[in-house]
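step: validate -> pass
step: tokenize input -> pass
step: predict -> running
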Amino acid sequence: MKFNSLPVDAKLRVTSKFGKRNLGIENASTFHEGVDLGRDFSKPSTKILAVKSGRIIENRWNNYRGWYVIIRHDEEYSTLYQHLRAKCPLPVGSIVKAGEVIGVMGNSSDKDVLKVATHLHFELRKNGKEIDPLPYLMNVESEGLDLTESELKKMVSVMIKEALDGDGKDVPSNWAKKIWEEATAEGIVDGSRPKAYATREQVAQ
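step: predict -> pass
step: emit ->
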């Protein structure tokens, strides 16, 4: 199991680790079943991202968890994202890709049950049992493009076409217009220049 994205669009900042803890917060569990990740203070909100592609199997409210989402990645692994600011807009059954936004970091919960600061509580479950996600968070591997050879060739062709912006016609690309105009004025383009010689500098350009 490898994560293909961090669960937040921010630098990884763990504010509470997995395992035994004593935070002194009323109604908070003494064994932390996930890790808490802090917000990015440089921007107004921190987005929550799917760490790996999968299917949303829960998207609802719980008095303790607040708004939360669970994504099943395969028969073995699932991840939980807790205390979202609002309900995830993606319904149960939705397929998500690694790095896809599933919500915004918040502090949702029943304030009479649990009072928390803005953060993401993140859990990794293997066969339904919570395990420490930190080693997985420290070894994120970007997900490669899932393209066939023909799709990749087509994509590269389009990118080159857009970059050159010449569309294969007898029209200079934007980046070459000045050079083209100078070459036209000197008779290089239409062959009217004696012997149509080009300087080494012009060839290089």
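step: describe -> The helical segments are 134-137, 149-164, 177-185, 200-204.
step: cleanup -> pass
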